[in-house]
Amino acid sequence: MALGISQQSVSNIENSEMIEDEKLIKVANVLGVTVEAIRHFSEEAVFNIINNTFQDSSSNNNNYLCTINPLDKIISLFEEKEKLYEKLLQAEKDKVAYLEKLLNK
User: Fold this and answer.
1) Distance between CA atoms of 89 and 56, rounded to whole angstroms?
2) H-type helices in the chain, by residue range?
3) C or N: which end of the chain has fewer Cβ atoms within 10 Å?
4) Are 55 and 61 in contact (CB under 8 A)?
């Protein structure tokens, strides 16, 4: 972990009302932001920034559109799973046949 502390310690920091300046400086450095940005953070401000800078008419903002058919992907994954299962089943059959051959010697 970049801070050199456990996940539980990180959770404690996230849930605390106050944080020591030394820890705050480490967290800011890890996140690549200023201490002031953390101190003055508000979710409302983040949403305001997003709402004020996102323009739906921009062609650059079309990256959120799905480019695959989810059903085709599900079918493809199911078929791949079936093939892997058949290979596993054949490997088990081969192993059983080999062991039976060894026992019959």
Assistant:
1) 51
2) 7-15, 21-31, 35-39, 43-53, 70-103
3) C
4) yes
Residues 6+ apart with CB under 8 A from 7: 1
C-alpha distance from residue 101 to each of 3, 5, 88, 98, 104 (Å) = 58, 56, 20, 5, 5
Q: How far is CA 21 from CA 15, 40, 93, in A?
A: 16, 14, 64
d(CA 20, CA 38): 13
Start-to-end Cα distance in the chain:
57
For tokens 């305001």, name the residue: 48
Q: What is the pTM of this model?
A: 0.39
Contact 24, 18 (CB under 8 A): no
The CA-based diameter of the chain, rounded to the nearest angstrom, is 79
DSSP code for 64? G
Contact by Cβ (8 Å): 10, 1: yes
